[in-house]
Amino acid sequence: MARKYIVEGGSNLEGEITIRGAKNAVTKEMVASLLAPGVTRLRNVPDIGDVDITRRVMESLGCKITHDAEAGTLESDTSSLATPEVPAEYSGLNRIPILMAGPLLHRFGRAVIPMMGGCGIGERPLDFHLQGFQSLGAKAEYRDGAYHFNADKLTGTRITLPFPSVGATENLMMAATMARGTTEIRNAAIEPEIVDLALLLQAMGAIISQETDRTWMIQGVDSLRPADHRVLNDRIEAASFAASAVATRGDVFIRGADQLHLLAFLNWMRRAGGEFEVRPDGIRFYGRDRKLKSIAAETGVHPGLMTDWQQPLVILLTQAEGMSVIHETVYENRFGYVEALNRMGAKIQVFSECLGGRDCRFRQLNHQHSAVIWGPTPLQGAEIEIPDLRAGFSYLVAAVLAKGRTSISGVRYIERGYDRVVEKFRALGASIQVVEE
Ligand code: EPU
Question: What global pTM score does this model have?
């Protein structure tokens, strides 16, 4: 049965929450465990839908997964891996199965992976993945609703990605760990979650280094062994709650927020008038008695302003004085969610031009990828439906800010990526009821 959140708005978020492991690292690290027969142990594992989906996919392949959601530990026993074919029923759920291509190729010489899912925030093709596998010597093609990979042995090569794609970098990195010879991935993604994956792979026995200028070098080894790894903290969860604290003119200590991985975000937060205090075990964010200011910013690959920080930041900017501009350069269609915010009283207009920054690869393609936000605008409660994960969190913050009651449906999106989100909002003083529809 589908669930809804009913939020009574008007709270200033105050108190303390603890960040857990990163959604966009843990699922990839579960996949990495397929490379080494035996039990790999992950710690700091968040209690989110994407971990469950990934667990189910891996179990369908014969793995034994034990997840203690309370303790945040997950053991992945891949010694009983029995098939390289991901069942079609897992198509469309998330974007993780395609990352199994490399591990399954190494263990079976072939892999069959059904069509991908994930949030509808752009077309999200897989051409870089397929071309990368072809360069590594695999046969990689899409037919009959699934991606088919075949290779007796992958061979190291030099790959230059057309864009520093997170998923393609991770996929090719895992595939290269046991390829014959050395693989160089240029113009690669270098997000902290990818570095965390590289750390796990190194602990498993891989030889992997980050060179200057977005290049990963991976020297293939004959085999990998299981490892024990603590997943890095979720910088998207941290930034989402930070923006919520400031937008609601509250005061929240985010235990586990890591300054190193929030460098760009913290600068933008300060430019927008929010403040923070860095402590040894986290960061306190506050907006009480502060004048929020408009900004012009653009999202980009690491070390830029993350595309996944954009949505909570937009909510904050609805409360800032003046006209803000956000140029989204990672996904062509990541402003669909603003229409519901406008119904709540926000004043946001989207444009297909590259506003507030340099021209990006979406220039003149008619994608609505720039937004102008006028503020401050009071928000009112409404009935809204979540279109994607990060938009979902921003709706929750908008609802907390709004006057009156907001009913939010489609909450499975939020729960796919945010650890115990209702519990955490409640701990900060928000009034949220969960009802069955
Ligand atoms: N792209 C291609 N061809 C490819 C691969 C990517 O054109 O073969 C394009 C995409 O269409 C997009 C851009 O490259 O325009 C970047 O995509 P990327 O591959 O980097 O994204 P992803 O790996 O699919 C991950 C996260 C996203 C996050 C992005 C960017 C996971 C499971 N997802 O997606 O997270 O926004 O990197 O940092 O790690 C989220 O958590 O809500 C989320 C969407």
Answer: 0.97
Residues 253 and 131 in one domain: no
Measured CA to CA in angstroms, residue 288 lies from 32, 224, 244, 283, 319 at distances of 43, 51, 12, 16, 13
Per residue in 212-224, pLDDT tens?
Answer: 899 999 999 999 9
How many domains would you assign to the chain?
2
Cβ of 308 closer than 6 Å to ligand 1, yes or no, is yes
The alpha carbon dihedral of 222, 227, 233, 234 has a sign of: positive
- In this structure, are 112 and 241 located in the same domain? no
Centre of ligand 1 to C-alpha 433, Å, is 32
Rounded Cα distance between 28 and 245, Å, is: 30
Inter-residue contact 168 to 183 (CB < 8 Å): no
Nearest CA to ligand 1 atom 9: 124
User: Does residue 332 share a domain with residue 217?
Assistant: no
Share in percent of the chain as helix, strand, coil (round to 5):
30, 30, 40
Strand order in the sheet with 110-114: 110-114, 146-150, 139-143
Domain housing 141: 23-230
- 328 within 8 A of 307, measured Cβ to Cβ: yes
- Binning pLDDT at 50, 70 and 90, where does residue 144 land? confident
Question: Largest Cα–Cα distance of the chain, in whole Å?
Answer: 64
Ligand 1 lined by 253 (C-beta under 6 Å): no
pLDDT > 90? residue 5: yes
Instruction: Note whether 122 and 240 are same-domain residues.
Output: no
326-336: average pLDDT: 94
Annotation marks residue 354 as catalytic: no
Minimum CA distance residue for ligand 1 atom 31: 24
- The tally of CA atoms less than 13 A away on the side-chain side of residue 170 is 28
